[in-house]
Amino acid sequence: MTTGVLFVCLGNICRSPMAEAVFAHTVDSKGMSDQFNIDSAGTAAYHTGEVPDQRSTDTCVKHGVKVKHLARQVTKADFHDFDYILCMDQSNLQDLTKMQPKNSKAQVHMFGEFDPQGEKIIADPYYGKVKAFEHNFAQVSRCSEGFLQHLGLGNA
């Protein structure tokens, strides 16, 4: 049985593909890749079909994390297909809560809820400098470990 995890931000080109890549890298490094179905999406369709922002990809690659993703928008089916939908900020959470179908299985949370340092918001780095992408990388790395702890898999 696999656990489906969908990472969500606004446009699916900065934060959520980074979170997807970092989480996939984290579970792979622990030999747990076969236990997860991992993807990312955006609440808006601004960048559908595009590759992630180069700064996001460069930051991941710098840390040895591969990124392979094309942006897509969240669908109603995602709420039935994934066990967890983890978003980056309060605005994403509100959008997802509004669109979540009744009787869907997905648990919707902000990914930052799992940050052991308590930094709940993973801010949009799009209009910032590379330093903002580095900050996001550190956050999603901590949150990945924290989420695995939440699932009871943290010390694997």
CATH topology: Rossmann fold
The CATH class is identified as: Alpha Beta
Q: What structural class results from the helix and strand content?
A: alpha/beta
- Compressed to H and E, one letter per element, the order equals EHEHHEHEH
List low-confidence stretches. none
Strand residue content: 5-15%
Continuous helix count? 5
Instruction: Report the helical percentage.
Output: 25-40%
* CATH superfamily label: Response regulator
Q: Report the end-to-end length measured between terminal Cα atoms.
A: 17 Å
Gross CATH architecture: 3-Layer(aba) Sandwich
Number of strands: 4
For the biggest β-sheet, the strand order reads 2-1-3-4
- Radius of gyration based on Cα positions: 14 Å
Form type: globular
Number of domains: 1
Largest sheet: 4 strands, parallel
Could you report the average pLDDT, rounded to the nearest whole number?
A: 96
GO molecular function, one term: acid phosphatase activity
Catalytic activity: O-phospho-L-tyrosyl-[protein] + H2O = L-tyrosyl-[protein] + phosphate
Family: Belongs to the low molecular weight phosphotyrosine protein phosphatase family.
Main location: cytoplasm
